[in-house]
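Give me the fold.
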Amino acid sequence: MTAAPRIETVSVEPAILYWGTPVVLISTSNEDGSSNLAPMSSAFWLGWRCILGLDASSKNTENLIRTGECVLNLPSPALVGHVDRLARLTGSNPVPAAKQMRQYTHEKNKWEISGLTPVPSETVQAPRALECPVQMEAVLAATNGFMADDPMWKVGIKVFEVRITRVHVHPELLMAGTTDRIDPDKWGPLIMKFQKFYGCTTEQVHGSRLGEIPEATYLSPDVERARAAALRQA
């Protein structure tokens, strides 16, 4: 039997473990009827649900708790300049202490700063970002704490579960001959790794046996809920 190759590892202590996740531009409604827009990258999806990890002191967190609604806009790498213009800006006034330490400044007109276009949503009050290839309207399903075992950090982060109520995409993302399937060769999200922006290849690096499973087998009842709500509104 051939001996396994020896692979060396070292123990490290990075300050953060942001291995790479899609950037999300979250839009929410402010108290005065205007809206807030801010990037984040602590998000993942299961079916038509999304888990969001947000700074407890952020304006989007405040708005999401108050209104129970948001829009998750997914930018492509081509929009990275628009996203980066929102870095170290906050809709909170006064600026929270933790963000003061990181030299954030208050900004009310984030849409204008970003150069993105707000357009009306269909199921929530917060607007969508027209230029983003993917825009998902969502309602709050659950709010959870985080790091409950740490007396200092447990109040600093909130974890939200949101349910998607409408999905909008640019038509060129659709798989040829379909109306509801996204072609993964056509969609490449903007990725954040260790606080830096990256794109990702739109070509598969290897075949996938999971990809042989029909997508319809994963269909969530939330899709039917969203469809029924749309019919009631019609």
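Helices lie at 59-67, 80-84, 97-101, 110-114, 221-233.
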